[in-house]
Amino acid sequence: MGIPPIEPVQMTLKEIKQQLRKSLSVYYDLREATSITDIVLESITGLSRVDRLLHDNAPLSIEQIVKLKDYQEKLLNRTPVQYVLGKAHFAGMDLFVDSHVLIPRPETEELVEWVVQSEKERPHHSTVQDVLDIGTGSGCIALALMRKLPFLRVTGADISLNALEVARKNAGKLGLKADFIHLDVLDEADWAAVSNQDIIVSNPPYIHLKEKSEMVSHVLDFEPHQALFVNDPDVLIFYRKIADLAVKKLRDGGMLFFEINPFYVGQLVEMLKIKQFASVEIKRDLQGKERMVKCLFKK
User: Regarding beta strands 278-284 and 290-296, do their DSSP bridges make them parallel or antiparallel, or are they unpaired?
Assistant: First the structure.
């Protein structure tokens, strides 16, 4: 028997939390159902978790409950909570997201931190540097780098015009003057639009179509396949093309960063060494997976 939906009658925060969490537990484990419930209630009420606990007997307005009912219906359709609310938290920013862009992941925040740390260690740190984020999506990497290192001159590139609109919206919302350009990195004719860079960073598609059947439905059904899957026999096609672009566009001593599928790290490192990149370094994410690669370009 299904869980009854939230109805537009006056209910307390405590009652709403219990009912929403119970309904979500049909599809999610208790921990994730609780997390989603907390995210939704904070968005609806504007109250922190502590404040909600202190006022758990406070009633919600009919308007809030109507909105909550709409959210519940979408969540029970397995729509990711970030798409339901139209926002995702990333590196201290609340970004607008919709189905045209991937939901930013915690491991991508780790990639941003590695870029920031590496830039701070360079001898010319705090001078103007040009950075290109390929496959920018929501703009999460590009905008996080601009916030953390304001002297950077950042360009985000994507093949999706809809994604570029999302990225520009986020830049405007945050008051950041990033540039965003249309780029099909697999088409070398498009490379003429790219200027010389000091850093190139990318989280490109790295899931082969043969892995599609192993993915959870709330990712497979809602997130953009163009940003997820490699529709080519060569699963590293995007990495090869971006590395070739980097050879042409990186200045001497420039850095190239990738987020990578852990299954293909060895192949990627071998490819980068063949293309004469130096100091190839692998970094594990907080889950212990080999998730990031950095290398230097020397002319």
Answer: antiparallel
CB 69 within 8 A of CB 5: yes
Q: Long-range contacts for 36-39 (Cβ within 8 Å, ≥24 apart)? A: 36/75, 36/81, 39/81, 39/85
CA distance 258 to 239: 8
Give per-residue pLDDT as tens, 80-123.
999 999 999 999 999 999 999 999 999 999 999 999 999 999 87
Nearest to 13 by CA among 140, 25, 50: 50
Partners of 156 in beta bridges: 133, 180
Contact 24, 80 (CB under 8 A): no
Q: Centre a 10 Å sphere on the Cβ of residue 120 and count the other Cβ atoms it contains.
A: 11
CB–CB of 239/208 below 8 Å? no
Is residue 197 within 8 Å of residue 153, measured between CB atoms?
A: no
The span from the CA of 222 to the CA of 225, in Å, is 9
CB 22 within 8 A of CB 3: yes
Burial 16-39 (b: 16+ CB within 10 A, else e): bbebbbebbeeebeeeebbebbbb
Instruction: State the Cα–Cα distance between residues 251 and 254, nearest whole angstrom.
Output: 5
Which residues touch 250 (CB under 8 Å, ≥6 apart)?
A: 196, 197, 198, 200, 256, 297
pTM confidence score = 0.88
Q: Is the pLDDT at 299 greater than 90, yes or no? A: no
- In angstroms, the CA 259 to CA 268 distance is 11
153, two tokens: 């001159």
